[in-house]
Amino acid sequence: MKITQTLPELPYEKNALNPIITAETFDYHYGKHHAAYVNNLAALVRDTALEEASVEQIIQKGFDENNAGLFNNAAQHWNHTFFWHCLSPEGGKKPDGKIGELINRDFGDFDSFKEQFSTTAVKLFGCGWTWLALNEQQKLEILPLKDAHTPLTEGKKPILTLDVWEHAYYIDYRNARPKFIEGFWELVNWDFANQNLK
C-alpha cells in the first residue's frame, strides 16, 4: 500500500461505519487529528532532503535519528492511513483465505486470537496501537505499541491494526475502550489483511 505525504481519501463514506464509528468521529479523528499529522509532516520536511521522500523513509529517518517530531507525525500519518483500510462496511466476518489459515496455525483458532488481541488492546496503557504483524520467522504476532510506534521500525510486516488512542473512541464510546474494541470486530477488513500477506 503506497502512502504519500497527503491526506488520503477515506476508502468509504464517513457515515458508512455508523453506528460503530460515526461520521462525527470521522470529522474529528480523520478530519482533524489525521489531517494535523499530515500538515505537521509537510511543514517539517518542507525545503529539506526529505520533501520528496516516501512516508516509510521519513519514519525510518526520524526513528534512526531519534527525531521525535519527524517520527511521530510521519508514523501517525502512516498508521492512520493503514487503519482506515483495516475497516470496511462489509467487514466483520470470520477471516478466510491465507489470513484465516495463519490465525488458526499461530493462535489455535479465531476465537483465541480475537480474545488475545482484544485483551492486549484493552490493557495497552495510555495511547497507542495494537497490531497484528508478520515477524521475520513468518509467524503472526500481536504487538501492543505505544504512541506512534509501528511494526515498520521493528522489522515486522503490518497486517492489521486497531487505534486505541482516546481520540478513536471518545465521541462514540465516551472513553469506554472495551466497547469500541467489540465494535471493531464487526468492521475488520479481512480482504485487506490478505492483501498485506502477499
Task: Give the SSE layout.
Blueprint: H1 23-45, H2 55-64, H3 68-85, H4 97-107, H5 110-123, E1 128-134, E2 140-146, E3 157-163, H6 170-173, H7 177-184, H8 190-196
Antiparallel strand pairs: 1-2, 1-3
Helix pairs in contact: 1-3, 2-3
Keywords: Metal-binding, Oxidoreductase
Pfam families: Sod_Fe_C (PF02777), Sod_Fe_N (PF00081)
Domain Manganese/iron superoxide dismutase N-terminal: 6-88
Overall description:
It holds the Pfam family Sod_Fe_C. Destroys radicals which are normally produced within the cells and which are toxic to biological systems. The protein is mostly helical. 48% of the residues lie in helices and 11% in strands. It has a 3-stranded antiparallel sheet, sandwiched between helices. Helix 1 runs antiparallel to helix 3 and helix 2 packs antiparallel against helix 3. The protein starts with 22 loop residues before the first helix and ends with a helix.
Largest sheet: 3 strands, antiparallel
Radius of gyration: 16 Å
Numbering strands along the chain, what is their spatial order in the largest sheet? 2-1-3
Distance between the first and last residues' Cα: 11 Å
Instruction: Flag low-confidence runs.
Output: none
Count up the helices.
Answer: 8
Kindly state the mean pLDDT as a whole number?
96
Proportion of strand residues: 5-15%
Number of strands: 3
The geometry reads as globular
Percent helix:
40-55%
Q: Structural class, judged by helices and strands?
A: mainly alpha
What sequence of helices (H) and strands (E) makes up the elements? HHHHHEEEHHH
